[in-house]
Amino acid sequence: MRFTKALTHLSLFVFLCTKLSCASIQQTPLSKTINKTSVHQAMKKVTDWQMARFNNKTYLFEGYDKGAHMAPTDESSHPQGWVYASFYVGMARMAELESSMGNDKYSEQLLDIAKHRKYLFAPRIYNADDYAIGQLYLDLYKKYPNEDMLTPLKVIFEIILQTPSTTTLTYEDVTQTSVHDGKLLQDEFGNRKFQLRPCKNRWCWADALFMGPPVWINLSKVTGDKRYLEFADKELWETVNLLWDDKDHLFFRDSRFFDKREANSEKVIWARGVGWVAAGLARILEHFPKEHPSRAKYEDIFRKMMTRLAQAQQSDGLWRPSVLDPETQPFKETSGTGLMAFAFASGINQGILDKKTFMPVVTRAWSALVDAVQPNGKLGRVQQIGDSPDNVSAEDTQIYATGAFLLTGSELYKLAK
Question: C-alpha angle 357/359/364, rounded to 5°?
Fold first, then answer.
């Protein structure tokens, strides 16, 4: 009798699982414990929620409202622009991890996306936002070596090497009208209009240090062409000399923020802006030659910045949108936190940061990031596209934050027991 009842209960469970796709099981809360199983489960859940919103016919993420800057004609939503690129940086790490487990599903999907885009870029040749997607092609090249993947990137970088931009690094929007018809001049491509910002032909804003130099330095490593490395090294230090604050050991977002102050009189240091730099430097150091004369300078500035950021972490494990004045925008935020958490974990894995000192920072951050993952796998509390501290809601999400989450998870998987 007991056996019959147990069998009946089991049959009912299997029936419900089949009908409901085991939804109740999928809603099981994620573990915050840092071990390989729990970290991988969190990455998988967030990945699958995100990729369910990718349209395999249009090759676009869909289902975002206009306020999320994912409208088809918005500058930032270009499918080969920085928003997609920063997601693919993290997604490629997830794909590599899955491939090591015998599952090439994600790698094949990324390869299909790259082939569909013909390994090309967004329209502005000199703008790091528009060639950041080159990292995806470099990551795929490791698994599927095909010179066609790198040809467009080499062509673009050769143009930059032969005719480098000499524009000032002062950040400003430029309004120009045509001398012929008096109409406003704007860059236009594919029904998208791009604001004219001349300094973006170089790395004049903090985000660019995540978008640009890692691609140049990784391409140098892959091809053996040292010109890419030397160009990136020279240009990057021009940006560092401009945006680095030697007193607080942090980076301004761009030159507009030098004299701005928060309500508590502290400098305006945007969490995601400095997060882009932290994650960018971590990625640079992964491929930067250890014997290069500049290597020690990179490690020094990285350690100083990460030490200062550790001091600014809030008790809940997150960083607020304004790093030095958490009260001015007291919102929990995950994109900046994800980028910083990745940088800490990567720094530990690379032996640049002391594990005993910084692992507690990573542990708190990961716990907070997992807390922000909703039961269905959506990563919330993401500040929307912008350039300064702003408000955030629990429902806000964006694919660049998912990318940062996957970057962090990939490093924690290496650290986990």
Answer: 120
Total domains in the chain come to: 1
Residue 22 domain-assigned? no
Give dist(CA 44, CA 94) in Å, integer. Answer: 8
Residue 259, number of CB atoms within 10 A of its CB = 8
Specify whether the CB–CB gap between 136 and 89 falls below 8 A. yes
Among 194, 187, 215, 195, which Cα is nearest to 203's? 215
DSSP 373: B
Q: What is the DSSP letter of 29?
A: P
CA–CA separation, 371 and 300 (whole Å): 32
Would you name the residues annotated as active-site residues? 207
**CATH code: domain of residue 210:** 1.50.10.10
Listed range (151-160, 171-180, 333-342, 352-361) with the worst mean pLDDT: 171-180
Q: Which two tokens stand for residue 97?
A: 């991890």
**Residue 141: enclosing H or E segment and its boundaries?**
helix 134-143
Give the largest Cα separation in the chain, rounded: 92
Phi-psi region of 65 (alpha: psi -120 to 50; beta: other; left: phi over 0): beta
Q: What is the pLDDT of residues 20-69, one digit of tens each?
A: 444 443 567 899 999 999 999 999 999 999 999 999 999 999 876 655 65
278: containing domain: 33-415
Which of 283-287's residues contact partners 24+ apart within 8 Å by CB, and which partners?
Answer: 283/89, 283/210, 283/214, 283/346, 284/213, 284/214, 284/217, 284/236, 285/346, 285/347, 285/350, 285/352, 286/346, 286/350, 287/214, 287/217, 287/218, 287/220, 287/221
158 is a domain residue = yes
Using the predicted structure, report yes or no on whether residue 119 has a pLDDT greater than 50.
yes
* Any domain includes 8: no
**Considering the domain boundaries, does residue 21 fall inside one?**
no
| Single pTM value for the model | 0.92
Q: Is pLDDT of 118 > 50?
A: yes
